[in-house]
Fold this sequence. Notes:
Layout: H1 20-28, H2 32-54, H3 57-74, H4 85-118, H5 122-143, H6 147-158, H7 163-170, H8 174-192
Helix pairs in contact: 1-2, 2-3, 2-4, 3-4, 4-5, 6-8, 7-8
Amino acid sequence: MHSERTEVTTDDVVDASPTVDALMVRVAAGDQQAFGELYDAVASRVFGAVLRLVIDRSQAEEVTQEVFLEIWQSAGVFDPNRGRAIGWIMTLAKRRAIDRIRSAQAAHDRDLRVGIREYRVEDDVADAAEIAVESERVAVALERLPDAQRQAIALAYDGGLTHTEIAQLLSVPIGTVKTRLRDGMIRLRHELGVTA
């Protein structure tokens, strides 16, 4: 008697683990176990994306925690018909990271202003004052740009995002991002009186 042997390939095996999309739907319903599984599935990816933006490891850990808290609190907003859960999660992560960068920059600027007032060594005060004046000039010039150009410049230079990441975050074509950056920088140079 001859028996046929069928060979099972990895293509034939169905992944039994739930997808991130399915986990998100369960999290939206308040399923804590699904939230734990979702965390295990995407935490390292979220942390890596945040770390690339904020650089500092402890800051990245804090931001990652904030992202997962936001996921738990607002999972009901996620609409699986509008896109993949991982895209929604990564957008949250990038926004939180950019918020942290902006917050850190604002704190740095505030510390610099306080430091300038309290510093008494003349040369250092003059240098710091010059930096502060120049920073103020740039801030004023940025405010004169159209919102779309200012946003693109902030994401690229303050947020450290690539053209592709900005396009994904803003849901616009990459060509639009490049145009906004180019036009914004030209206008910014004009506002600052830079001729080169």
